[in-house]
């Protein structure tokens, strides 16, 4: 059995399960997001949905480059860890605030803030996963993440999203997604004992060439 499912270290397991919950939660959105905006936001159209997604993706795509550069320059992983937790908390709060959205500009502002949260979350998330991946098991552990966290999480979220929206209504879905996102963020706190502390580089030594000695 171990030949087909090798032993995996705690960091990878925590990340895989935490992201499974996170992706399952946000998997609720695809069946309801466009319908929610066009039917429950006054004056919103299908174009509003497109612009809202554009605001999110542009914000995330640009800002995460700066976050990635910042955390790569710091030695150790403590910066990565705090960025990841902060990003998860921001995303949890912002997605919950969609419950109160009542105008198109609310949707755009929330899309920007959600992009900011994910920009802080994603680079350190992948950085920590990459550093702690087991040598010789890289393919399997990335495949496990893709199959379980991304694949199963998206499938489960998509299936449950439509069902829950029918039962509780579109707006009530956003606090539910926020709670699950917060749970995933709390799970990431268990990574703390495995995170390498910040390392201060030793001062450079000055070598004096004593000629003639």
UniProtKB/TrEMBL annotation:
UniProt keyword list: Cell membrane, Membrane, Transmembrane, Transmembrane helix, Transport
Membrane topology note: Multi-pass membrane protein
GO cellular component: plasma membrane
Chain segments annotated as transmembrane: 12-35, 41-59, 80-101, 107-130, 142-166, 172-191
Compartments (UniProt record): Cell membrane
Molecular function per GO: transmembrane transporter activity
One family name in Pfam for this protein: MFS_1
Taxonomy, superkingdom: Bacteria
Major facilitator superfamily (MFS) profile domain ranges (all copies): 11-213
The protein's name: Major facilitator superfamily (MFS) profile domain-containing protein
Native source organism of the sequence: Candidatus Sungbacteria bacterium RIFCSPHIGHO2_02_FULL_53_17
């Amino acid at each position: 059995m171990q030949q087909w499912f090798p032993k995996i270290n705690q960091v990878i397991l925590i990340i895989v399960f935490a992201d499974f919950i996170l992706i399952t939660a946000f998997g609720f959105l695809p069946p309801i997001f466009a319908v929610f905006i066009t039917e429950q936001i006054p004056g919103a159209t299908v174009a509003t949905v497109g612009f809202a997604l554009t605001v999110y993706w542009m914000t995330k795509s640009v800002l995460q480059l700066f976050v990635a550069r910042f955390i790569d320059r710091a030695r150790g992983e403590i910066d990565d860890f705090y960025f990841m937790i902060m990003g998860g908390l921001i995303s949890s709060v912002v997605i919950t605030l969609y419950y109160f959205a009542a105008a198109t500009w609310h949707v755009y502002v929330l899309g920007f803030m959600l992009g900011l949260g994910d920009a802080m979350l994603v680079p350190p998330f992948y950085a920590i996963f990459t550093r702690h991946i087991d040598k010789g098991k890289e393919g399997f552990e990335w495949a496990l993440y893709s199959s379980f966290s991304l694949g199963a999480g998206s499938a489960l979220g998509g299936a449950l999203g439509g069902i829950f929206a029918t039962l509780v209504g579109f707006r009530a879905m956003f606090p539910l997604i926020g709670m699950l996102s917060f749970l995933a963020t709390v799970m990431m706190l268990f990574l703390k004992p495995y995170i390498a502390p910040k390392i201060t580089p030793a001062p450079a030594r000055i070598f004096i060439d004593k000629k003639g000695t």
